[in-house]
Amino acid sequence: MPQHAVGDKRFTSVAQLLSSSAVPAAENGLEHGPRGSRASPCSERAAVQSPLDPCSQPLCQRQAEKHSCQAAPTVQYVSAGPEDAACGWQGFAPECLQVFNTPKGFLLFLCAASFLQGMTVNGFINTVITSIERRYDLHSYQSGLIASSYDIAACLCLTFVSYFGGSGHKPRWLGWGVLVLGAGSLVFALPHFISGRYEVERDEEVGTCPANRSTMCMDSISDLAHYRLVFMLGQFLHGMGATPLYTLGVTYLDENVKSSYSPVYIAIFYTAAILGPAAGYLIGGTMLNVYVEVGQRTHLTPESPLWVGAWWIGFLGAGVAALLVAVPILGYPQQLPGSQRYVVMRAAETQQLKDHSHKTASNPAFGRTVRDLPLSIWLLLKNPTFILLCLAGATEATLVASMSTFGPKFFEAQFSLSASEAASLFGYLVVPAGGGGTLLGGFLVNRFKLRGPGIIRFCLLCTLTSLLAFLVFFTHCPNVPMAGVTTGYTRSLQPEGYLNLTAACNAHCSCSPEHYSPVCDSNNTMYYSPCHAGCQHTDPASPKVYQGCSCVPTSLGNATAGKCTSSCQRKPLLLVLVFVVIIFTFLSSIPALTATLRCVCDQQRSFALGIQWIVVRTLGSIPGPIAFGWVIDKACLLWQDQCGHQGSCFVYQNAAMSRYMLVVGLAYKGAASWSSFPGWVLGVSRPTCGC
């Protein structure tokens, strides 16, 4: 590829103009001359700049002050043949496929890939993790390691993929990434086919008084637990395959559309990635109502603690779909037809650093070898706007990852919901707030023509608004009374931190703490299990109603299986303000991404996004849920007893949970605000080319 210079400056992209008949001259704003024709730099600028571009006039004025257009050297443009930009595979490029050889066509397949990635990694995994633990005898820390394998793989691959893929054939990197993503889904479903059939004993009633069935405590680890290595391999492949999507995919879109339309295209792409988890929860939850051994009759029901649903079907379907989507992506050219007209327009919005190192980075050959890697990293490290945007993104990613993980748990504790009800309620908030906020953010950047400082100012406004809405955690819903935990068995006041599940009314039952199955009486008081409520048997006409409960202070002495409902009057306020927190958090995602693309030179965009994702994952999405989980565990009132070992938390103190989430949330939101404010100041004061 030839390199063209104007004075002592180089173009940041290869100045090739496509002369295909499929791109009319009127649309490009210039007439294509024959191969080898010459044109002056100023005439080229006047041709490629749109009259609607607000940056065109100031740019030409500043260039005119530096040197005369008549005295400037001429630039030679080599017209590329239509076959260079054709959509196809090797020599096979039928005419019928060229209708998809547009930014909108590429966006369609890229959205399909991001949808499948979100549905698999953020939807199916979170939905089926409990079923996998039950089926393969995994502990919580083992399933946590499976989930984190995705981020570990992404961090290991981001530098390599973003650096070499940024200067390579991006659609091929993307296509191979989607193929690896599909292979990861197929590997994740593999244990179902090689581990044998799932066999269980009959689920007997063990929770009533006078005594529970004895439970054997065994420390031995099942051989099934070794299948966690296969699950980790599947997640590792997921992380490898998804790496190009949010680095090379974003820059490829940005390079092939007008800069003012770029935020809209990227917003649609990210919205598809957000809708994917919603579909994953819906499809995955539906598949869990089907028995894991499809076609086999069983006496178990989905309500049974031994039930395992068909967790593997979603991964099998997603894997095959990813393999199919990868094929058209592999057929796209390195540059879409007509994309060269945006070269100067993008360069006008790029923050140019006035030193020799930046001139080196502007070289089209820069970044193609490992020798350029240290300089590439150094250029990013000395860019304060980029560093501050990375730190702000890491703090926001901490909250997004933490709220995605523990948001359903917060709703479950505050509103006394089941796990499925809490997940559904949280999903109803996240889909419109997250997806709508992402789309709206890209639309606003395009609608108001926001550039550098204006984008960072908008991000700061969104962060401050969500910070104020985070004050919602000042309020909370009171705990539902639970005998022996939050209240005494005789409705007396229970001292805080004092637990006593045994009382005179159930002392003769010899209840086991391993069997947690809450029941609720007519006074809206909850009990640890039917045995702890002193219930002797179930109602023959209604198996979910227990009779003869000696601890229930009513004439009938009945209790119903399940948690008591919460009559919290603050529920609407909590839901509305949580919605505001989510929508304003996602509202700044696309503007912040656009600011990142505009504050680095053209040759470093893919690599900059890769470095940014590494910072976001290592400082945000990986440690964030761990920190939030540790803080939330401090609010636990009642822990699970697994043969003398502490398990998961059954009951949280709602006031303490809200207080701890408020402190941590305000700390991270405050850090994001402090990172955005200096970035705004630097963005205003730094010299820019054009805007």
UniProtKB/TrEMBL annotation:
PROSITE patterns: KAZAL_2, MFS
Chief subcellular location: membrane
GO BP annotation list: monoatomic ion transport; sodium-independent organic anion transport
Compartmental location: Cell membrane
Species of provenance: Octodon degus (Degu)
Transmembrane segments: 106-125, 145-166, 173-194, 229-253, 265-291, 311-332, 426-445, 454-474, 573-597
Entry superkingdom: Eukaryota
A GO MF term: thyroid hormone transmembrane transporter activity
Name of protein: Solute carrier organic anion transporter family member
Gene, per the UniProt record: Slco4a1
